């Protein structure tokens, strides 16, 4: 039983969505697409389940709630995170400190190609901590990040 509990914790992935991502599908669809966040989350949860992993999804417009969720993830035995910090990418040292503090590996995801946008979006407070960064691939970036996370947790993903 103890071995199963350890394995179950290891196979837990947290998907974190930052501010305004609750508006996906209606907010600037030419940049962010028309797919709603609920549909993305359903797809990720189903993919995780099919791979024998638990995928947890959380979105907040509040920096402190995202920090609290990251800290809770460490206590829950989350083994990997997929993080789209959204606008906090360029502003939040506090969120960066939370990610660094828990030591859970993560992939940074952005729907749009932030390097092709306004200059203030070119600086990320997270990229140097991340296992990798995916940007500009729309919601499919989450799928690629999840696939890599699953591989890392199984030990089958390349470094």
What does this structure look like?
It is built from six helices and five strands; from the N terminus they run αβααβαβαββα. With 159 residues, the chain is of the alpha/beta class. It has a single domain (2-154), classed as Rossmann fold, CATH 3.40.50. Strands 2-1-3-4-5 form a five-stranded parallel sheet, sandwiched between helices. It starts with a helix and ends in a 5-residue tail after the last helix. The model is unreliable at 1-9 (pLDDT under 50).
Distinctive features:
alpha/beta; Rossmann fold; 41% helix; 159 residues
Short description, anyone?
By secondary structure, the protein is an alpha/beta fold.
Write down how many β-strands occur, each being a DSSP E stretch of 2 or more residues.
5
Largest sheet: 5 strands, parallel
Q: Would you tell me the overall average pLDDT? A: 89
| Strand residue content | 15-25%
The dominant shape is: globular
Approximate helicity band? 40-55%
CA radius of gyration: 15 Å
* Contiguous helical run count: 6
For the largest sheet, list the strands in their spatial order.
2-1-3-4-5
Count of spatially separate domains: 1
Structural class by secondary-structure content: alpha/beta
Rounded to the nearest angstrom, the distance between the terminal CA atoms is 31 Å
CATH superfamily: Dehydroquinase, class II
What's the CATH architecture name?
3-Layer(aba) Sandwich
Encode the helix/strand succession as letters. Answer: HEHHEHEHEEH
